[in-house]
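Retro notes (design track)

What went well: tokenization of the new backbones is finally stable.
What didn't: we kept losing track of which sequence belonged to which structure.
Fix going forward: every design gets posted as structure first, then sequence, in one message. First example under the new rule, 143 residues:
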């Protein structure tokens, strides 16, 4: 009986490990594809003469806006998502900070996804490729 339980546990452990490895491989593929889209966007924005803007970050509660050292292009009208000049993907929300009021915030890049907002539950999902095209099509004028 104990041998059967041990064998079953080992089988389950291997199955879970296999699923985790497959999910990680899928995620790595998605990040690579999204990174390629961002790199292409930066190139195309330069070709079209779209100047990068100095990016600002907002606090999680939305009450404060902080300067950043980043330059790039906002992808959403609410300025919560951006692509940096370096081709990195930034979610521009940060923790509230008195220090950041004076020195600025330092958002870190996030692994990009092919569907922006996926898993967020707020109903505002959009393919990254579509967001990038909309931004390019808007030209210099952006909300």
């Amino acid at each position: 009986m104990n041998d059967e339980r041990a064998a079953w546990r080992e089988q389950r452990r291997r199955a879970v490990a296999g699923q985790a490895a497959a999910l990680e491989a899928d995620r790595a593929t998605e990040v690579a594809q999204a990174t390629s889209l961002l790199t292409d966007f930066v190139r195309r924005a330069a070709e079209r003469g779209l100047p990068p803007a100095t990016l600002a970050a907002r606090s999680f509660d939305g009450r404060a806006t902080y300067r950043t050292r980043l330059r790039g292009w906002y992808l959403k009208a609410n300025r919560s998502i951006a692509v940096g000049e370096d081709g990195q993907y930034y979610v521009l929300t940060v923790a509230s900070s008195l220090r950041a009021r004076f020195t600025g915030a330092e958002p870190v890049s996030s692994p990009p996804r092919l569907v922006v907002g996926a898993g967020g539950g707020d109903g505002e999902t959009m393919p990254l490729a579509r967001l990038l095209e909309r931004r390019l099509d808007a030209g210099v004028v952006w909300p």
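Added context from the reviewer: The longest strand covers residues 65-74.
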